[in-house]
Sequence to fold (1237 residues):
Amino acid sequence: MIHLFTQFPHLAEFVQQLINGLSLGAIYALIAVGYTMVYGVLRLINFAHGDIYMIGAMTGIYAMTQRPDWSGAGLSMVILLALSGLVLLGAASQRWRGRKCEYLVVIALLLAEVAVLGFVPWRHGEPCPPSWLTFVMVLGGAMLASGLLGYQIEFIAYRPLRNQPRINALITAIGVSMFLEFGGQRYFGATPQAFPQLIPGLEQHPDLFKFGPLVIPKVDTLILCVALLMMFALRHIVMKTRVGMALRAVSHRFDTAALMGVDVNRIVSFTFVLGSILAGTGGILVAMRSPKVDPIMGLLPGLKAFVAAVLGGIGSIPGAVAGAFLLGITEVMVAGYFPHGSQYRDGVAFVILIGVLLVKPSGLFGSNASEKV
Amino acid sequence: MKYFAHALAVLGFMSVMLPAQAHAADDEIGIGEFASMTGATATFGISSDEGARLAVEEINAKGGVLGRQIRLIVEDDQSKPEEAVTAVQKLINQNKVCAILGEIASSRSLAAAPVCQRCKVPMLSPASTNPKVTKVGDYIFRACFIDPFQGGAMAGFAMNQLKLGKFAVFYDVKNDYSVGLREFFSEYVKTHGGQIIADESYSEGDQDFKAQLTKIKAAGPEAIYVPGYYTEVGLICRQAKELGIGVPMLGGDGWDSEQTFKIGREAVNGCYFTNHYSPDEDRAEVKDFVEHYKKKYTGKTPDAMAILGYDAMHLMADAISRAGSTKGKAIRDALAATRNFPGASGSITIDADRNARKPIIVLKIEGDKAKFVATIKPN
Amino acid sequence: MELPAPIIACRASAGVWAAVLRSNWLWPLLLLTLLPLGALVENENCVNPYFAHIILLCGINITLAVSLQLINGISGQFSLGHAGFMAIGAYLGGFATLTYSVLPADVSGDPFRSPGGVLWFGLALLVVALLAAGALWLLFILIRSSRRIHPAMPPIFMLLVILWFVIDRAIGYQLEHPAWYLLWTRGWSGLPRLLDFVIHAGMSPAARVSTWLPHSWCKPLCLLTALLIAGTFAGLSGLLVGLPTLRLRGDYLAIATLGFGEIIRVGILNTEPLGAATGLSVSIYPNAADSGAGLSAHYIFPWIFGAAVAATMVIWRLAKSAKGRAIRAVRDDEIAAAAIGIDTTHHKVIAFVIGAFFAGVAGALYAHLDGYLNTNEFAFTRSIELVVIVTIAGLGNIWWTVAVAIGLTWLPEILRDPTLFAIGKNSHKAGLFVQYCKQLGEFRMVIYSVLLIAIMLARANWPPLRAMCQRWLALVRNHPPNGAC
Fold:
């Protein structure tokens, strides 16, 4: 086969571009799956999803390079953490004078976040040396942080608007996205930061396979595998478990599911947390691939992932992955084969979006829902 | 309640009546500086600002200029050209500065220069290398070399020293500096018998360059010229290494930042770039500057933007003292008459096009550091 | 005996005009009293030029916000692509005065001398654009008529045409003289050449006509023509955006308009004559007068003020008219409105076109204010800022939009430098409060976003919140007497 590729260099170039497209598509797939899940359940375009992806990457950087300086304001931090821990404990049973108090959990989380972000004096230090343990811990930390953030966003910003027209929720989603982006720029600094190495040996030997002129890098394969794994895992959860059944019920008909005894709030929170965990994982993986992280890195990939989800049929998980791969390949082909195609790269996603919305709004795998009068 | 909004709107229109007074420095000389303190190319702005502030400290310690202390007023343009225009307008109209220290990036200098020219406020750019900047008008100066020299110098070095003949160019289409350097590099290579076998572009802010890099790889170059800014250059080198491109990358002074090493890590080893100075240089002025800088900024090694900011500030102060007044025309004439000003990065002479003629240093990246390789003097 | 119809009409209209004046006295009065204030804005000795600049920006933002209110609030089509219309107006208006308002024989190259040139450019561009659009529309009709052969043919034909376009461009993109069969490549390079040809053909007569005009009329006429051209093309693009998105609802429409805005931005980014990525420096219409007050059309304040007032009045009257009621009916329940007999297509599209027109005018004014255009200024962020203004003001409220637009234009400037209004020389020695405000100013966008979320949540929960407040007030005011329940 190597002879084939060396004989026909154009073929080798084409296949390499396909591989590039697949790896770009895998990145979009990680984000698109979360988008499509949330839309399927809530009919809400969560603009903040791309920013949760950014928070995942930022958590990775902070986990690896920042060390707390205990000597200074550690005492106030400890007090705040203790307070929030107490509140958390007290509310863990979600019973306070006989009423459910989920908001106490959220308040406790907010207090803990304020304590950790604002009161702990973080010092910038040397990044941790790369190792598999570090990788697992950083990934776990990013998942935790993004999951918690997703839960809080849903509780604070989207739950009160559940019975309102969808436009209001959309505007609020835009507000949350802006808050994360500009707040991130104030807190983390608007300057791009370098993501340190996580997996040992990845930079020194970045290639997995080499077929003559053809190269398949390790990081891209990892992202692809994780994206496919997520897709199968999610499909299993949605199709084969009880929670998944409840999820499907809620996405079909909110109120009827509630009548059937499904705790709608819990299911919606679960969806958000799951989607956010995926986004956070995506953030870490992409930061491993291109180690430049800045607070607005989530804007454009978020929009493109949404286009991918629409292309594949919004509400369908395999559709989101398929749409993401298609979008990635198209983008790379435009950049690789059109003259000055890289300038039109970002426009391609939007042209596809408009095309899909005009021709077949339900996307490739979606179902046509007709509007009742 | 119904007309409440009307009343508010009326009040809004009435806001015209409010009096205001701009701050004018009376016993100080106000010099404005607009730099990218945040955003994509933040290290440029931070470095040049640190150099300029070091210079201001030194000047004020010696008694200031014309008997008055210098006040440096800094505006952040967030690495955006439109913010550069707003920043310069604010400096001129609100803070009433007598001169402006201009941007490092050519795009932002180009955006702000028409404003300075129109308001007849002299603007001195420490490090903008695109030739279009000083062509805006006779109030715009620069204290560094220009891109025709830089592009040609790198091409000459690559062809003569490294003995390479086939090049690929990968430039940033959104950046005047990058577009200009690509033009001058290609021109030199073609007129001296070399070949440009691939010419690809990317946009500032892109994260994925593999599509274009695959195209470049298929063409089979002996070196790739990447005249971009450090934010993308690190990623480009990494992705090139991932794709198995083993040829060296060449670059311009936009590579000069610690972030290049932090983002690019192993992948930038063995690459060359042209710059304004190297901290390893043997000259006494360089050693002095590096020592003072490290003392003021706790052990940080200055990069080229820092020394250029330092030199530009000293040059500006010297021009004001030669002019004998803070009037724009006088400062402009004094700047235009600068001959052999002893700057730390080299002797500065402003020629008829309001550019400086200074030598270029070629550096090679080896293991996290940029090592001095050669000096190329202007002819 | 019946009076003839025209006399009845005159009598009726007299009554109508009286009614109109009675209900609209406030704003024409404001116009008459505030216009002289423009003289003060022009006089640099009275008002700081930095201030004057902010006031002018207020005017532009009012125009933009009110036009967006028409699209979002009154017509209910949530558009996130308003910055795209503004960009079209800004670039076309700026480019027109930069290149074509200069008299060809004039060596000094002063702009704003040739209104005829600007007008001719607009007409030529319109003709060429209509030609291109017409050709594409014919193609589209052809594809659609293939449905008669088989219902599945149109998508296949569409794909074939796209493939043809791609192959054609791939072969011919670098050729100097493409072969006769490479139609798409010939068209792509031929259209700009045709435009150049048409412009050059008519430029000298147009310039000659301009020299006949009185000298002092040239400058205002140039700006007026540029504004009208900007508005027209922005309106046309509003048509292009409004027509395909008729079928879309709610969030899909929002994303589609966002996409259109980005496509417009990327298109401008790749157009060389419009400055591509570097940005375009256009001629500036003068701002403040050096000597003496001048409320003349030679300064930009009356134009911005006039555009703001015109936009507000037009959209206000439109909203109160029968057409406005029809638009609101389509917003409230499209199917019921169609059942009554209201042409939903017409009313939805007219909202887009009028809103886009005023956005284009505002964009052209913006270009002539600062003189520097960069596509980054017309990105998604600007659309969002306008949406924030419209949302805070409430969907459908025009006057609140004006007020909020003014407020949100002043707010960042005040936050950036709270000593802006300080009187006295020692104002630059900042107190603690001022420093706090300055730091707050850096959080401006964060405050906007929190404000947006808070307002949306408050509106959603207004009834229970209001009930809570009332209960609390009642508790506070009336202490229940002892023993009573």
